Structure formats: C-alpha cells, structure tokens
Amino acid sequence: MEETKRLFSQRAITIATFLGGPAAAGYLVKKNYEAFDQSEKGKIAFIIGIISTLLIFAGIFSMPEYIIDKIPNVLIPAIYTGIIYSIVEKIQGQWLREHKESGGKFYSVWKATGIGAIFMTILLAMIAGTAFLAGDLSRPDFDSTTYDNEVAKFVENENKSLAVYNVINSAEPQFLIKEFSKGIVLWKENIEIVNRLNAIENLPTELLEQNKKLLSYCDLRIQHNEIIVKAISEDTDKYVSEIDRIGMKINKVLEELEELKK
User: Fold this and answer.
1) What is the torsion angle, in degrees rounded to the nearest 10, for the CA atoms of residue 50, residue 55, residue 61 and residue 63?
2) Residue 143 gets which letter from DSSP?
C-alpha cells in the first residue's frame, strides 16, 4: 500500500460512531476500503451501516415509553459503538496497525468528529420527522369541541357543588344539608359527563387516563357529601375521622390530576 494514502483510525471511527451511529461508521469504513481499492466492500459496509442505524431506531421507537425513560441516554450509543469497534478490529484492524507501523498517514480525529456530527444531524432530523409523523398518525382527530363543552359543564357543576364550603361555618344546618345534597346530584351528573367524554371517538390516551381519575374524584366527592349530610343531620362529631379520611383521598386524586396535566 502506498504511504500517501490516508486512513481513518479505529479511534476516529469509534468517535464518529458514537456521534453519528452505525451509518457514520459505515461511511468511514467505506473510505478505508476505497483506499485499498475495494470499493465494493466499501459500499456494502456503508449500506450495512445505514440499515443497522434504521433498525436500531426502529427498535427504539417500538419500545414502550416507560422503558425508554429508564434507559440511560448514553447506554444505546455505548452498546452499538462497542459492537462496531469489535467489527472494525476484525475486518480492518490488521490493515490499520500495519499502516501505522509503516509510517502511513491518518485523517485527523477532528475530521472524523465532523463527519460523525453530520450524521448525527441527519439522525436527529430523521428522529424528529419520525416522531412528528408517528404522533400525527397515532392521534387521529377527536371532537375537541364536544370535549371542551362537556368539560365546561363539569367545571360548572364542580364550582356549584363546592360553593357551600364558603358558608359551611356560618350557614344553618338545614341549608347545609340542602346544599350538600344538591352537590351529590351535581357530582352524579359529572359522572355522566365523564362517561360521555369516554364515548368520544379517538380520545387521546392521556385524556382517557385523566377521565379515570375524574370518575374516582366524583365518587369520592359523593361519598364526602353523603357523610357530611349524615353528620349534620345527626348533629354528631363521630364521622369526623371518616370525613377527613375521604378528604385526604380527594386531595390525593387532585394531586394526581395535576401531575397528568404536566
């Protein structure tokens, strides 16, 4: 081999791989093959690199989100970089060592880094485009107008039912019994509203999950009002612990609903 030929070192290929994935590695391996007048092997290496990259990201997109969230960001690049390092060692390692020992020249690591960065940009564009298309296809339009109208009714009922707490320490017992009883009716109406929301076609998963929490919230509000009505009617404090227990459950569900909105 002529000394005027330049190659990409294994270190350079490793860095480019970590940045730009197997496709970047395939490209640099291709350039090395071309230096040895083995263009066909170079083309095959590049094609394998591209296919490997596509398979890796197809696998990532097929994983459930909760699994992806648990995987450290550097783990997947570290794994495929290690695998490609071993492959390059097997197919070109001897060439690279002989080239170095004979005083042959290598491209700078910075050049390989730049190539890796270019492939990384391409990958990010592919990921962004795939994520956009996947989100667009996996979330068919739903009747948002009906949804918003039903939610507005829910909030209106909620506000009416909770208004009694503004006068709970000053109003007459019979008035409180009447208002808390009205609240029971309003919360039952809200259950019907949530059921109508669930019936809307193509409702996103996060809204369906929110609806489950809302049903639990309504049930707890009904229980809360019923026990308060009972306590006022019997003019007793023996239900205080039960009222507090249900109240804590209500607060917990409200916190969970807030988390879903983030």
Assistant:
1) -150
2) -
Cα separation, 236 vs 230, whole angstroms: 9
* 141 contacts 204 by C-beta, under 8 angstroms: no
* Amino acid type, 23: A
pLDDT tens-digit profile of 101-133? 998 999 998 998 999 889 888 888 877 776 665
- Amino acid identity, residue 78? A
- Cβ-based neighbours of 205, under 8 Å, separated by 6 or more: none
| HEC letters along 120-136 | HHHHHHHHHHHHHHHHH
Predicted TM-score (pTM) of the model is 0.51
> In angstroms, rounded to a whole number, what is the distance separating the alpha carbons of residues 177 and 227?
11
Amino acid symbol at 133: L
Tell me the average pLDDT across 145-155.
93
- Residue by residue, DSSP assigns 235-253 as T-STTHHHHHHHHHHHHHH
pLDDT digits (tens, 9 = 90+) for 226-235: 999 999 999 9
Q: Dihedrals φ, ψ of 105, to 5°? A: -95, 150
Is the Cα dihedral 134, 137, 143, 144 positive or negative? positive
Of 7-16, 22-31, 134-143, 227-236, the range with the lowest mean pLDDT is 134-143
